[in-house]
Write a structure and sequence with these properties.
This protein has 289 residues and is an alpha+beta fold. The chain contains 8 helices and 13 strands. It is globular. Keywords: Acyltransferase, Transferase.
Length: 289
Amino acid sequence: MMLRRVRDSQADAQTVLEISTAAFGVPPGAPADPPAPAATVLQLARTRHLAATDPDGCWLAEEDGRAVGFALSVRREGVWILCLLAVLPDAQGKGVGRLLLDRAAEHGRGCLRGMIGSSDDPAAVRRYRRAGFTLHPTMRLEGPVDRAGLLDAGDIPVHPGNAGHRHLLDSVDRRLRGAAHGPEHDFMLAHYDELLIADTLAGSGYCYRLGGEVKLLAATSRRLAVRLLREALARVPQGTDAVLRFATAEQEWAVDVGLELGLSLRNAGFLALRGMRPPAPYLPNGAFL
């Protein structure tokens, strides 16, 4: 078994995509159609972004010249984040995931805090717990938005954001999770549909949306978070299901909004944290947490 860095190349990004698709397969009840071209492009771009910003945190496992697994991780201001880890089905149970996790974790040596978004796969959950992470069960809300519940816009102004708001974004990030997202904001601004900003004397917050999915929401108060979430859901295109992921029990404000607007709720994976409590009010980005 050989481990090497993931290169910032189309070939390595395609390899990561193929392993991820084979490892995670199609969720129960989901259509078996291949990912939409836009989603594929986004995944390829995400891999190249991480390989460029954190080459020491992104690794491929190869056996007899064949790539069998990968780990993508970043280090941001004292927080180490495992963005994604996957192993081909026929290579699972052989210690490949453990080797990849150990090598990627070396990139976070000295970090007091850590974050991982985990599926409910028993092997993955066991691996992260043994690595010292606390497992926080998460929920997923999904479905068509009940537009009748959006008639009250609220009294907090929300407006489109841009790169000129980086100071606000970094400030909110540091307050909630102890570290800014840094270059990930450049990626999200370039690839997501919109950034929404709320900035008042009482606090600040922001939210990214891509199609029907709320990709990341962070605010300094629940009142601001609720306002941002309702605004983001109001902007979901007609005929598109809304999606909220990785909501822990600390995000009851988001659960309440989602249920009020007709979304369905179910358990879905874990937010694995080390040295920190779940940030709140906060809906993580599964790609960058």
